[in-house]
């Protein structure tokens, strides 16, 4: 395991259990994600297009999260961390069963509202369970071990997204499994993930729990219920983290929208000779776009896995937290600058692979490590809020940018690219502040649990 990170004696088993935990959570998500798209395809809401429904859902998710996150914080201040994870995960499992029962053409026919509800649910499902997992992992490890072991734990996320997509693709081809049955299939990895979380809570880092671990069995996950929003505003470090997550998501989502526009423009020019035959033109555009994105996602998933397995821990060893925080925004800056000065689709594709794969590996690890020196209260109250609400706010701002830029200012691709470049500069500025503050918080953090010495303490 030392090929991937600095794993010390007796740390490997818990590390692999946590890796398996996030792997299973991502498998479950990528099993239900295509069902979300399929359900949306047969959902009609007035005169809204499917693209508008997807764009507005980010705003709707923000409103829902704004309402439920204070409730989650109160539960975290009441329940031990194991109960919190099992009950929240169990609630999601029950909702999955409920959605399977309300699928189109089953018990209640095709009720459009359920398609929208499921679309909102899947978005909240993904960010909530992942945020809860990383809060728990940070609680288990503490600052010193988390800094060493998070790069290897995060390999599970890269594997889970790839394997989950592959399993879903294979299962829907079986005659005995309908597309909506993937909702029930997702209950298997979700249930296993909850079992692994419970196991990790019992065994601690080494399998011989010290009082540092056993005391957490009965304590509430969060020592107090100060409230997530008050907590974020109270500490500049948390405020800056929230701002960085929001701006980062804004950049990445806007970048994906810009890429889609460039791809469509290039293929429209390539197949301009078919404009007199709309059927053939639409077919050519559909096949070319599908092939482009299939190839793009393959390379993104491959490089995400390679970067997470072999590069992230080495970047951390040689450049520290500063290198992790700066890597992705500077790749993004190069990507969008090339779109302005060298708008060649092949080059843009290569750079977008670099940007997205570094986002899912290098920057994902950096975002989780920002929380290592924080308190239990911040982990279980502020972190879920920042990792869910502010991510969805970033998505909403990206949609708003497209809407206002197109309808009000009539911006083209170049205008949106310039906006993204300016946002990346803001992202780098916030990252510079976070890098300094992270060092200060790390120096003042409490000492972690003592290393294993061969005797139970």
Commentary on this structure:
The longest helix has 42 residues, at 112-153. The chain is 79% helix and 0% strand. It has 15 helices and no strands. It is mainly α. The chain has two domains: 1-222, MFS general substrate transporter like domains (Growth Hormone, Chain: A), CATH 1.20.1250.20; 226-444, Up-down Bundle (Growth Hormone, Chain: A). It is globular.
CATH class (first level) name of the largest domain: Mainly Alpha
How far apart, in Å, are the first and last alpha carbons?
26 Å
Order of helices and strands: HHHHHHHHHHHHHHH
Share of residues in helices:
over 70%
Global geometry: globular
Number of domains: 2
Structural class: mainly alpha
What are the key terms here?
457 residues; mainly alpha; Growth Hormone, Chain: A; 0% strand; disordered C terminus
